[in-house]
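Bug report (template v2)

What were you trying to do?
Predict the complex of my protein with copper (II) ion.

What happened?
Run completed; filing so the output is reviewed.

Input:
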Amino acid sequence: MNKGFLIAILAGLMPLQVLAGEYDISVDRVQIDTGDFVKEGIGYNGASPGPVLRFKEGEKVTINVTNNLDEMTSIHWHGLILPFEQDGVPGISFPGIKPGETFTYKFPIVQNGTYWFHSHSGFQEPNGAYGAIVIEPEGREPFRYDREYVVQLTDKHPHSGDRIMRNLKMSADYYNRQQQTVGDFFSESAEKGFMATLMDRMMWGDMRMMKADIEDVQGFTGLMNGKGPEQNWTGLFKPGERVRLRFINSSAMTYFDIRIPGLEMTVVQADGNNVQPVNVDEFRIGVAETYDVIVHIKDEEAYTIFAESMGRSGYARGTLAPEEGMTAEVPELREAPLLTMADMAGHMDHGDMKHDDMNGDNMAGMDHSDMGGNDEMDHSAMGHGSMDHGDDASLPEDPFYAKGSGLVPTASNGGKFLSYSDLKAQKPLYEDREPTREIELRLTGNMERYEWSINGIKYEDADPIVLQYGERVRFKFVNETMMTHPMHLHGMWSILEVGEGKWNPLKHVISVAPATTVYMETEVDAPGEWAFHCHLSYHAASGMFRKIVVEGGPDSTVAEGKQSGKQGGES
Amino acid sequence: MSRLTASMCCLALTATTLATPAIAQEDAGKKTQTSRTFWGVSAEKLEYRYSDSDEELAVIEGDAFYGTDELKFLWLFEGEWEEAHNAWEMLENQFVAQTPVSDFWDAKAGIRIDTPEGPDRVYGVLGLTGLAPYWFEVDTNLYVSDEGDASVDFEAEYELLITNYWIVSATFETLVAFSEDKEIGVGEGLNSTEVGVRLSYDLIDRAFSPYIGVVHERKYSDTANLARDSGGGTEDWFAVVGARISF
Ligand SMILES: [Cu+2]
């Protein structure tokens, strides 16, 4: 069923609603102790991370948010389908919450799964203003588990968000301490030959790009449920139990590769939506994504939950143990990956290379005869693992990475690493239908100046993207930068194109790797004004952001939204 | 001094006109969701120089900026304090507006006010700064003084990472004048070069990086003659110790 429709119905039934919950949240200055450093930050109800909010599908929630800061604040309910005035983006959904004020959010809970909430004001979220949301389903879930934990990750930095933004603007590589050194040059020369290494450096130098531009903010301490690696967050279990772990990546800037050495994980949900279970040894969680996995633990042993940053510059760590205090070995960080020429499509001006020519054959010189006449990356036509172009046979094929990319992840134990292609919806929410139109969004930027944009235009200079209620829009993301961007559309589902038709998974964040083209479709079923942006905090803040206006739609929904918006705000 | 005040007013005027671009406003999210203006203060060089001829100099080269991606205002400061004379041998302040002209290059325009020991000069400045291929940081300017003399300077810097914290930076600076300005010791043609190599260590982030190094300064042709006439040297080797600071 269509969720917009569902909202409308729920709105209509509102007087009959019996299930209603009231919650209070205060926004406070807090101390954050990561074990490595202590810093002043922002939290909810006196702590960072904030509380885990537990809702029930079908519930009508009232959330009173009191701002105890001396600056404006807001809370965005990440991934929740709700009237746009309740979405919590200052300047788009509502004016924001002034110091000392209480704003009341009211909306029906029309979905279930794992989500999170965070401030959408300034850099309050990187500074600590985030928390988890768990929504119990109305019916039964298609999987069983004995206990569950929220595992919320973040990348806590000693610097404040404002300071980081400023430093990045002063020098974009301020926080990059994985740049190639003289030593690297010599060791690479010994391996690949002096001239080859020199030519390689000349090529990158000529373009003024860095192979190490994978994580632009390093130097953080990874936190798991607010605890640093030394503080070791621990989840208890009894041997024989199935434990559901609700992973949420609340980082400002960090993708994590997650594994639990010794345990296989069964991914059952992505971004709050059930997926057909897939067993993996490791998975990558983009910024703002959520993944629910179930681990069946048979032995009375401790297991490390190891969340290593994509660029291997830091990690978060916790433990699953039969009793408090038990620990397991903590793996070493693996060697940092480096970008390759294949990740550079947007920067190589070959003239004949179109933006959507993502086969990477210009660089790799591979035979693409078996890719048919596709002039763009067609996920549906690309089998899983059936392609073997042989330019680097050791790397598994993954259509969501450029061919020959330095970012293709591998599982540390040589096993299965989750790919977007593995995600298939458990139960399609929408009918599969032809999109009414396609909108191309090129993800663009200038790394040297630390400017990020969409279609070469920063938010401040951009017109809103206007959609019509009832449309099904196909978004085409073309990543022309060398960084991975987690693109987040508020208020409506992002149906990720993995070539599975109506079983394409529903997500709220779509991660787009460098030099790739990724498609998503959206049923435009939520009237109003919505934010759409890269979820890397400093990318969004420097312009990789758009307002989306959905025109038209059932009046009842709009009216209901407006009403509840007014009740809470502008006191 | 009145000349200086006049120039400052002129700059302030330019600043206010430039800083109020027409923005198509109504999308309030543009104000709340993105960061527009930035500032920064840094001293690329803050050092003591000991020459092989026992000369001792304190040298500072720094800047402060405020602005947006599209338009920044900078105050660039350069000074050489001579221990022996207890005086600023060189002291210049530049106030410029800087704007991007391509992916890697910015153009700048403004004024430079020199107030060292001896005669003052005020210059109009047109400059280009940016990143050349192969990671050379380049800064070059055309100056026209209130006496009508034109000159060009050129600076390039290259950083070599020994590790991600130990950094060797090589710098090259030169000045070429199109006409002579005897009063301030500027001859026509190639005036001077300065070549430096510094080894630094990022002690506190990139905010405080102490360094040691060597600097070689040389004056050429007419400029060298002018220096000799006033009893100065034309070539110096310096050992330097200092720090790069940025906050
Ligand atoms: Cu981004």
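What did the reviewer find?
Chain A is about 10% helix and 35% strand. Residues 34 and 228 of chain A are 5 Å apart (CA to CA).
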